[in-house]
Amino acid sequence: ARGASLTDFAEKINVEPAQLVQMLFGLGEMVTATESVNDETLELLGEELNYVVQVVSPEDEDRELLESFDIELGDEGDESDWSVRPPVVTVMGHVDHGKTKLLDAIRDANVIEGEAGGITQHIGAYQVATQVDGEERKITFIDTPGHEAFTAMRARGSQSSDLAVLVVAADDGVMPQTIEALNHAKAAGVPIVVAINKIDKPEADPTKIRGQLTEYGVIPEEYGGDTMFVEISAKSRINIEGLLEAVVLTADASLDLQANASQDAQGIVIEAHLDRGRGPVATILVQRGTLRVGESIVAGPAHGRVRAMIDEYGHEITEATPSRPAMVLGLSAVPGAGQSFLVVEDDRMARQIAEKREARERAAQQAKRRVRRTLEDFMAS
Ligand code: GDP
Ligand code: MG
């Protein structure tokens, strides 16, 4: 138990903060909703609400569950087995500054060699290639509609991307969501590349953007800083290659992206839905290890055996290595965006873990309902 603000606590147990304030008042404690209360007060509230207050994060709880199956999340194996993996990139920025257009432009322009048909499937993420210093380098872009998955992942504290492209429209400049995106990147500790977009417009003023971002501590390389700024037009497809090169160079300069491809796969769910014909379908991103068709996996409260994997080119693939997104068929249910997935020994273990997670989720929901009822009784009395 670590104490929390009443607002946070109320949100956790799904009640109005005002109700808790009133309840505490009734118990002789004067606290405002935004005030932080100590553990004893939380426990007092809990007792009153007939609720066992256990201030444990869901992540810790899940880690414990997995440990009981001898599984360690995030285990990277032996360093001698590590190899370079492509960067995973999110595109962020203010609304209408061109994020979707940019993701379209990259998708259309940079298919991986030998993939004649181009990227045909929207699976929530895709991999492209670019030439840097005569070498083919791959990059994975998270490409979810409205980026709900990204928000969900952030809320779950799971790190989905290594690097962020911050899109700023050159005719508009730094806006509130630009700053918000910047803060998210900072909080997550991911480096950024700034894409100054819409330079095809006559009123575009890239110098102004450089100046504005400098004020927020994002200093362009050409001003002696360490952030690459690239002028592009997503619509007119100007300098998309330059942006991809900047992504690779920034990743090389500030990240040491390696993963062990020879262990059991672990990663994250990018998005998932129920398909009429195929059942639950989940796009996963492999973060370590190699995922293979036929393996038993558990993804959030879903489990199953990988029946098939389909990539963004519409091809069936038999394995997925680190940083590769793939659509997975064969799960028992639809997992949530941002939830982790991992390969386990066999179907039995996958089912057991999934069932335990489900039971825990059910218990939490019941407890919430119980609290709500107790509160309602309390307010009525
Ligand atoms: P998002 O909200 O950040 O995803 O922005 P969109 O990609 O939907 O783009 C918003 C609007 O800006 C659309 O009308 C695009 O056609 C337009 N747009 C995007 N990129 C460019 C560009 O490079 N030049 C011009 N002139 N318009 C662009
Ligand atoms: Mg958009």
Automatic annotation (TrEMBL):
<feature type="binding site">
    <location>
        <begin position="143"/>
        <end position="147"/>
    </location>
    <ligand>
        <name>GTP</name>
    </ligand>
</feature>
<feature type="binding site">
    <location>
        <begin position="197"/>
        <end position="200"/>
    </location>
    <ligand>
        <name>GTP</name>
    </ligand>
</feature>
<comment type="function">
    <text>One of the essential components for the initiation of protein synthesis. Protects formylmethionyl-tRNA from spontaneous hydrolysis and promotes its binding to the 30S ribosomal subunits. Also involved in the hydrolysis of GTP during the formation of the 70S ribosomal complex.</text>
</comment>
<comment type="similarity">
    <text>Belongs to the TRAFAC class translation factor GTPase superfamily. Classic translation factor GTPase family. IF-2 subfamily.</text>
</comment>
<protein>
    <recommendedName>
        <fullName>Translation initiation factor IF-2</fullName>
    </recommendedName>
</protein>
<feature type="domain" description="Tr-type G">
    <location>
        <begin position="84"/>
        <end position="256"/>
    </location>
</feature>
<feature type="binding site">
    <location>
        <begin position="93"/>
        <end position="100"/>
    </location>
    <ligand>
        <name>GTP</name>
    </ligand>
</feature>
